[in-house]
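Hi U.,

Before I forget, here's the chain from the pilot set. I'm dumping it here mostly so it's searchable later in email.
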Amino acid sequence: MSETPDQPQGQPEDVPPTGQERRRGDRRNVVDRRTGLDRRRGPGRRRSEDRRSAEEGEMTEEQFEFLMAINEYKRVNRRPFPSWSEVLDVMKALGYRKIAEPQDIQ
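Structure:
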């Protein structure tokens, strides 16, 4: 084993000297161990958290449409927490109307 001037005595050659970069490999090609999928989606826009939830079956299309309408209302009106009457207005704007008899809430 040969010693180099910038390496402390007794340290193996394959260990980088203190202060040097210790990363190995290219982090851009990392595969998520839990899912086996690439971490990066490649070029283009990333899906929003809401869109990803809807696409993965955690929301129905109707629920997603309602969520997006509420988010749009909050953005346009600069309201972080709309009142219940405002939520009802958003629902009516989506086309919901009371046509059936009231039922017990489950």
